[in-house]
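thread: overnight batch results

M.L. [08:02]
morning all. the overnight job finished for the chain we discussed friday. pasting input first so we're all looking at the same thing
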Amino acid sequence: MSYIVTTLENLLQQTAFFNLDWKNYVMIAVACLFLYLAIAKDYEPLLLTPIAFGMLLVNIYPDIMLTIEESSNGVGGLLHYFYLLDEWAILPSLIFMGVGAMTDFGPLIANPKSFLLGAAAQFGIFAAYFGAIALGFNDKAAAAIAIIGGADGPTSIFLAGKLGQTALLGPIAVAAYSYMSLVPIIQPPIMRFFTTEEERKIKMAQLRPVSKLERILFPIIVTIVVCIILPTTAPLVGMLMLGNLFRESGVVRQLADTASNAMMYIVVILLGTSVGATTSAEAFLKLDTIKIVVLGLVAFAFGTTAGVLFGKLMCKLTGGKVNPLIGSAGVSAVPMAARVSQKVGAESDPTNFLLMHAMGPNVAGVIGTAVVAGTFMAIFGV
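M.L. [08:03]
and the structure it wrote out:
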């Protein structure tokens, strides 16, 4: 009888109930909220579902992120190995290749002025950088936090790793991906506030056709120019342009299909789950985390505002030919931000089609955020 009681006691002691505190349950509740938003509300479920589930797993079983050094048998936790691929910048670079293979750069090539809108939306990054310094973060930590304003999860992970801010990588990555997922909630109120009904109804002229030669030369030229000026951007910009070259060359269809489908989804699973697994209660529920989340939101809001305001300026300068709503797509959440521009424009005029026009600033934002990350690395000599 005593043997049975002892066995049952041992089993009971091994349950999570005896190894978790209230902070873990708070994070479990947050994970369930994210799962609800992903599944019930369809807020970017491809990103939010693996992130939320990784958050759920690590707060029920923290050893799933155990490092090799911390383990008693020399074998780390499953998600620790996924996370190493984030730290080594492998998964973020592969994500960029997939994005390049999936994305049509034609709207940006057809309307090069879109680069200006993409650049304007990076203002939020620099606003957050100085805000982070004011809140007591050192310069490298401030740079890693500020890049959240680009709404680009892979670049946020990449820069945090390169600047040696691995202690902050979890909150930074979760904030960046959360804001990417919540673009349909965060951006529309800002867009409506800074534009008039008449501006939102502006219909833009159809974009000119882009030749195959232009499409092929664009990723090659951008890689040469950007990577010569900022060689540290090569892992991101290079992979983005390589993926797009796969797409546009027409001679490696199998590679383009693999990069944009099977590989992309595998990488999203690994990256999303490992990012979510960095949010253990012990690491996440800190004052610095709250600061990072708030700064990220401020950066994203400032970036959206700057894009819209610059869109209004272009509208004035072109005599009303540019709809300011496409400026909000200058953040690099591809293609969510462009879809939001289309949605808000269609609310004012259902016959208004802004999606392709918004894809120009959207693609420019991806390149712009990578360039800003490279600039920070150059400043700090990384």
